[in-house]
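Work Package 3 committed the consortium to producing structural models of liganded targets before the mid-term review. Because experimental data for this complex are still outstanding, the team generated a predictive model from sequence and the ligand definition alone, so that downstream docking and mutagenesis planning could proceed in parallel. The input record is reproduced below exactly as it was submitted to the modelling pipeline, together with the SMILES string for S-adenosylmethionine.
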Amino acid sequence: MSETAERELITDFTDVSMDDLKVKHDTVQTKLTGQEENELILSAYVARNSEVFPKVLELHVDNGSTIADVTYGKGVFWKNVDLGDYEVYASDLDPKKSPSGHSVDCRNLPYEDNSLDVVVLDPPYAEGFFRKNKEMLAGGDGSHQQFRESYSNGEVLDTNGSKYHQAVLDVYYKAGIEAHRVLKEDGTFIIKTQDEVSANTQELTHIQITNFYEGELDFYTKDLFVTVRSNKPAVSGMNTQVHARKNHSFFMIYEMDTNDPVNVLYND
Ligand SMILES: C[S@@+](CC[C@H](N)C(=O)[O-])C[C@H]1O[C@@H](n2cnc3c(N)ncnc32)[C@H](O)[C@@H]1O
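The resulting structure, written out as tokens with the ligand in place, is given here.
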């Protein structure tokens, strides 16, 4: 019989103080030193994309890797990355944002099959950027012009016939298929996304995309980072609030490697 089991069971609590029952932290937790704590990469940060993206690379991408950022935008992700550590290719649908000056659609990339270690994807995540009427584009009232400029070129984007939230998903799905083609067998696919409420419906975009990537493309979902913005999100024309206003977004990390664990899919 073990020592613990031999101990007398206490049924009379008159001599037992609360302090006797308190779990002593240092007996059950391994404490990290201050330095270890600083080095540890966490799953959530109140920080900018440019601060979180280097951590994603540090944890998931080897130095010397070949990386294609296929929605380069203003290159914010790379602001705090030493470009000498990787071989980076960058492109965007908007030729003004493509460092080469060429318009490159993330759904039709100019790379060979099985040629890249990493693909980075961050297309417009909100259905407002795909609206047919230019006046109705997100940020179209002039108040969020800078935001709009970062996310689209201010033009209605080609959605191949899809509308609203489905148009958002469509780009992620088609770009995912294309990333799968150009990635090496052990490649890593990093995406940035944010959930949205569209037509009064909660759309958990990061889950919808993950279901497609796991179910249709056999990606393994290796990690998820949450980025929480430090300032308040913009509010326009709010009546009665129905859903929590989103102030967080995700970096999702998917792996091609067939030796990786497999996600369990629940189908019924
Ligand atoms: C959220 S911004 C990207 C921001 C970028 N990650 C950065 O660090 O600055 C979205 C970008 O996707 C581009 N885009 C939209 N549709 C695209 C497509 N089909 N192929 C490539 N780029 C696209 C837009 O022009 C825009 O620059």
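Reviewers should note the following from the model. The chain has one domain: 41-255. These observations will guide the Year 2 experiments.
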